[in-house]
Amino acid sequence: MTDVRLIASDLDRTLLTHDYVLPDRVVEAVGAVLTAGIKVVIATARSPIGVSHFAQRLGLGGLVICFNGAWIGNVANGQATFSMKIDGAIARQVMETAYIARLNPLWFSGEAVHVVERNASIERETAKTGEPVVVA
Questions:
Q1: What is the distance between the alpha carbons of residues 19 and 58, in angstroms, rounded to a whole number?
Q2: Could you give the CA distance from residue 62 to residue 91 in angstroms, rounded to a whole number?
Q3: Contact 47, 66 (CB under 8 A)
């Protein structure tokens, strides 16, 4: 049997509850894993800002995979080792199409969540992640 050297985990509804709470027992379990010399990496659709306070509470200062792999880096210092951005014109076209279809588009700049309009869903999410909201 091979020794475990790394655990990669999603954040939402895996380490966090449905209410975006990070239970103490999860913090303790991750701490035990780190003490055993096993690396832990969060892999999530969230932004680095949206992950940073959870990573800090878990004692994870290193590598995090954000935006479903489009940003990989260190959330402790915000430095990306890999970043793939969507062309601005294409992003605007997608957001406009989504808005016309009565969807609730949002996008991340690395510094904030950008939305077409604020609503309860956006307010609830950003209250939990601590990300600033910019209405564009």
A1: 17
A2: 29
A3: yes
Whole-model pTM: value is 0.83
31 vs 34: CA distance, rounded Å: 5
Mean pLDDT of 89-115: 87
Confidence of residue 126 (pLDDT cuts 50, 70, 90): confident
Report residue 62 as tokens: 């290193």
The answer to whether 11 touches 46, Cβ cutoff 8 Å, is: yes
Question: In this structure, what are the phi and psi dihedrals at residue 68, rounded to the nearest 5 degrees?
Answer: 55, 35
Question: Helix, strand, coil: what percent of the chain each, to 5?
Answer: 35, 25, 40
The answer on pLDDT for 29 being more than 90 is yes
CA 102/CA 106 separation, integer angstroms: 12
Radius of gyration of the CA atoms of the chain, in A: 16
